[in-house]
Amino acid sequence: MKHVFRIFAFLLFAQSALASHYLGGEITWRCFDSGPNAGKYKFYVILYRECGTGASTFLPNPVVLSTNAPGGSISCAQVGSATDVSPNCWDGTQEINCNGVTSGQGAVEERRYESGYITLSGVPPAGGWYFTFTDCCRPSITNLTSSSSSYTLRAYMFPYSINGVPQNANPCYDSSPRFLEPPKSVICSGYEYTYAHNAFDDDLDSVVYNWAYPQTTNNGTNASFTTGYAFNNPFPNGGNTVSFNQQTGAMTFNPSAGGSFASCVEVSAYRCNQKIASVYRDIPVIIRTDCGYNTPPTVQINNIPNFPALTPVVASGDTLYWETTVYAGQQVKFDLVSQDAQLLPNFLPQTIEFSPSGGQLGVPLNNPNSGCLNPPCATVNPKSPQTSFTSTLNNEISFDWMTNCNHISYQNNSCGTPTNRYVFALRMQDNFCVAPAIRVASVVINVVSTIPVPPDLSQACVSQEPGGGLTVDWGTPLDTGMNFDAYVIFRGSSPTVPFVAIDTIYNYSTLSYTDLTPLSGANYYYLRTLGGCGYTSQTSDTVRLMEMSVTPIPPTNSSVAQLDWNAPYVGATPTYEIWRRPQGTGAAGWSMVSTTTNNTYNDTVNICGQDLEYQIRINGACNSTIDGGFFSDQNNTDVLKIDSVTVNGGTALISWTPGTNGDIVNYDILEWVPGTGWNSIATVPNTVSMPYPLPGAAPGSSVKRYKVMSTDSCGNQSSDLLVAAHNNMLLTENMDPCEGIMRLRWNQYRGWAGGVKEYRVLADVTPPGGPTQIGVLLATKAPGDTAFNTRDLIGGWSYCYYIRAVDTAGQRFSSSNEVCINSLAVQRSRLLYLAKTSVRNDNAVELVTFIDKDADIIHFDLQRADRDGAPFTSLGLIPKPVSPPWEIRFKDFSADPANHRYLYRFVATDSCGGIDTASNIGTNILLEVEPADNLTNILTWNPYRDFMGGVLKYDIYRSIGEGAGMTFVGTTTDTIFTDNIRPTGDNVGIFCYKVVATEGPSLLNFTDYDGSVFTSVSNVACAEHKPRIFIPNSFSPSSLQVENRTWRPKQVYVESGSYKLEIMDRWGNIVFSTTNENTGWDGTIDGVKATEGSYIYQLNFRSKQGEPIEMRGTLLLLY
């Protein structure tokens, strides 16, 4: 069996071979950064040769690389002997190996070449320095148009810039990516195959994979592909595009045809978003369709609890690779499980062999200390009880890697991102012949270490300590404890000089530092955080001590202290507190006098004479330096603000905001006296309670203006010129009982800086017997509106009116004096409701009206109009009832409700002789009836108006004959009704009706005298149906219809006892006679059939009204 290298499998396809010998290869280089050859390069070439029987055995030695780099071509000598890298399988007799199979079956030999140490000076051009090797010939290739052509291997080195400065390639700065997996010369069709290159970059640069053109006779001459294939889709995949992952280089496809297929993959390295190297692997792959059925082993990654979990990266349902990101110092552990239950032709289980690759794996694979790029190395071990990397049925492997800061290359290469990406190709393959099936799990582990964050000094400051030291405080950095090692304190004498580290703090929770030996003069500080893998954060904000100076103004007899100070750091806009104390009073003497956001402040001193000291603070801390001087209070700068002048219970009251000077002794209240000016009317101590009663005020009869000024302990009085005068509001009223209007007037309130927002008209209202409703809001008036009129007065009720002014901020109020009255206003009707208009049996119209017993009404005028739009005329004046029930019942005997519809209303006259109000309109219901030929009567009437609850329904009543009793026949909500009178018989012809409207539910629930809901009855209207006679013109005694065997007239509405029928033959002989209207002639004469033919009838009767009727005609007797 041949030695097999740990390299990522690359697909090789070939179906037959000519006598040519090259299969492909790659060119890479390494930069040496230590030892005697540090800064130099060494180039490596790997060539793959077809080694089946019949192939050429010639390969060059040395291999000479062509280049455009300084120094010319590069010679690479062979290292070691040739290696057979053909695939192994379970049966040596079927195994592919050099000279063991014919050419074109997949036998591959590998030879390696190295150059000496080389210096490349200068900066590569934008297109890079190329390194190429060209020779003849390619084997016969299925997907290329030209077989057995030459081929060219190539690699490129590109320029690299730091901070915009291109770097000289001497000394060297980069090693190219290199391939860790030898080519896979043969695969079998019949299953989905995934293959990854597993290129590795020793500098941990970012690696990106792309398809590339194979090249032929020279650099830049691309091979041509046959129809159906392309450089980026070189393999048969059932008509689908081959899946290609640019991060791992994994290609996935399901071989659908046999042959030898050329392919080329470019692997580029990127540093700081700059491409600095590209290498190419150019090699064909043979797909065989005669392998028999076989599928690759399954591969599954099992995460282990409490260790970082690997997450599958999936596209189109396929897992491309597994990935996790860890901080340096975290341990990565997981299990890899592979299964293959298939049997070999000898019925033994297939063997699963684990063969990983990756630049961070230890050598041997269980060694964490050496063999990888940056120890500690990742290790893999068979999982107990398994003892080997080869197993049948199941193969379980444990992966273990303890990461640390060695795995981060932030400072040199990672451009501010402390992240490195490690790719491991974990391959499981069976031992099927002739080509083992392979499954690869690509694992990507990103090792990161975030850059430490500097402490937060946005709210920090430097404080002066009593002993002279300076204390710096700061906020916790937005960071985790895992990334923290220490805080470093730096100090400088100005922002422009170099700062020096003066101390280191290793406790993450320590958020302040005291510099016990500060520099003389200014002291500036900033901090940095140490953490992660020895990284240093950027600098924090720079802070300094607030140095404050006091300038007395004027220089002698100073009454103003001008304070100036610097901000604690650039851009700071805090709220500064101004603190002051008498000199020598110690810490207890400090008091805050004001705040500001500026860096200067003038303090007007309110002390008669004293040495004062000042300090600036932020939030009660962050103390500045202390400075002071001697100051004396020469004036009183208070500008007093009066809150309001108001009236309460007949007393005028004044309130003001206390002065800002701390030594006020008393206040003087000033009143404006016309012709004299402002006079003091009261002197009150500074402890006075607000509001204060104004002496001598007469708020119910006069308007006065007031001011307030203060006197300090040095006898200085504040200026009254700067005080806005305030006045009281005087409310007056005017009431006319008959007019029923209360008129209120008042003067404007003046004095508020923003003026008056509104005036609220309020009243305390007391009905007879109480209780009083306090503060009833009647209206809100605009600032310029000082009048209010109202009719909302109830006789006998008491009203106390007052006005309340409101300032524009809605925080200050002033009330006027009160004006109280016992209302003598005429009480208007609150109720005048015509509840019923109904036609009585004697044809009079009855009206029922409800009135307001409390209204000041003399009488009610009953008015009637004969139609809509006609004027109302008075039917008479009805005095107001003086006792219950509070209603008017009236009968209009002058009306003709059988022929007219009237409109009624009541109009009330008040005690002043004026019209108070009018009631709603009431109408009678006028009913009309029309007889119809189809023995129905059609009733129509006008809608009733106006019930308060509306009309619920109309009930219809009917009598048969005039004066007879009425019976209910139906109900409706419409104003038309059709009555079918067929069921009533045929002995009466007059029908009389009335309609009754019923009120629906109403809010006041008024009822008639008997407690029932109100109804309105219409007039009685009648319709007459005259007699109707039906006389047949023939009959047949022998008819099959019984009713056709006799002959008689059929009539309706004939008066009983007046009926006589005679039938005569043509000679005038009476053949039949009867007085019973229900008896007919059967066609016999004295019991003998009469002769068929014509006969004469004579019919006599009286109608219901007694009118005699005679009818003659002929009839035909038939047999």
Descriptive overview:
With 1119 residues, this protein is an all-beta fold. Helices cover 0% and strands 45% of the residues. It folds into 8 domains: 279 residues, no CATH class; 141 residues, Immunoglobulin-like; 83 residues, Immunoglobulin-like (Sandwich); 84 residues, Immunoglobulins (Immunoglobulin-like); 80 residues, Immunoglobulins (Immunoglobulin-like), CATH 2.60.40.10; 92 residues, Immunoglobulin-like (Sandwich); 193 residues, Immunoglobulin-like (Sandwich); 90 residues, Immunoglobulin-like. The strands form 22 sheets. Strands 23, 24, 25, 26, 27, 28, 29, 30 and 31 form a 9-stranded mixed sheet that branches. The longest helix has 4 residues. It is flat and about 155 Å long. The termini are far apart. The N terminus is likely disordered.
SS field, number of helical segments: 1
Low-confidence parts, pLDDT < 50 over ≥5 residues? 1-20
Shape: flat
- Integer average pLDDT: 89
Rg is 60 Å
Give the structure's gist in a few sentences:
This protein is mainly β and 1119 residues long. The protein has 1 helix and 86 strands.
Features:
1 helix, 9-stranded mixed sheet, Immunoglobulin-like, 86 strands, 1119 residues, mainly beta, 0% helix
Note the topology.
Elements: E1 10-11, E2 22-31, E3 41-50, E4 63-67, E5 74-84, E6 108-114, E7 129-135, E8 151-157, E9 161-162, E10 165-166, E11 178-179, E12 183-184, E13 186-188, E14 193-195, E15 199-200, E16 206-211, E17 243-244, E18 251-253, E19 259-261, E20 264-271, E21 274-282, E22 285-288, E23 298-303, E24 311-315, E25 318-327, E26 331-340, E27 351-357, E28 379-382, E29 390-402, H1 410-413, E30 419-429, E31 438-448, E32 462-464, E33 470-473, E34 486-492, E35 500-505, E36 512-515, E37 524-531, E38 535-536, E39 543-544, E40 548-553, E41 560-565, E42 576-582, E43 591-596, E44 600-604, E45 610-618, E46 627-631, E47 641-648, E48 651-657, E49 664-673, E50 677-685, E51 692-693, E52 705-712, E53 726-727, E54 731-736, E55 741-746, E56 756-766, E57 773-781, E58 787-790, E59 798-807, E60 813-815, E61 819-822, E62 832-839, E63 845-851, E64 857-865, E65 873-879, E66 887-892, E67 903-910, E68 915-918, E69 922-923, E70 927-932, E71 936-941, E72 951-960, E73 967-972, E74 976-980, E75 990-999, E76 1015-1017, E77 1021-1024, E78 1028-1030, E79 1034-1035, ...
Parallel strand pairs: 1-12, 13-22, 25-31, 79-86
Antiparallel strand pairs: 2-3, 2-21, 3-6, 4-5, 4-7, 5-6, 7-8, 8-21, 9-10, 11-15, 14-18, 16-20, 17-18, 19-22, 20-21, 23-26, 24-25, 26-29, 27-29, 27-30, 28-29, 30-31, 32-33, 33-36, 34-35, 34-37, 37-38, 37-39, 40-41, 41-44, 42-43, 42-45, 45-46, 47-48, 48-51, 49-50, 49-52, 52-53, 54-55, 55-58, ...
